[in-house]
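note to self — DONT lose this again. spent like an hour looking for the file last time. sequence + predicted structure for the chain T wanted, 137 res
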Amino acid sequence: MKSYAELDRLDIGVACGLKSEKYFEFFAQTALALASRPEILRFIVAVNNGADRKAFEALSSRIAVKIVEPVLLPVSEDTTRASAGKLGLVRSYMHGVVLNALATSFRSEFAVIADCDIAIVRKDWDEAMHAKLNNDV
């Protein structure tokens, strides 16, 4: 694995649903403010269940955000029986679909998957995470 200084990109995948835009914005702001190398952070947002795509597009003028659309696969009636969100799919199915969309969008040597409603509180969190993956901590 490359040293952290050698990396040219760190992808951060975030699953975002209904009314998650402000939470994501706060998360991204804290991640950028406390990263040792904010210039390499790239946020990949998978939107589902009524997330406001236009709000995420508006953020892209200030934050490096790529929006990916989850691909819904045909599912059995058992999967769609419970109603959750506009698509009428159970939440666990949609969560899996979103994670698949994120995983296939990563282009960095290693990536982060995060919920949209978190905040980064550690300075140089990105470098510390890379060191942990290398067992350098």
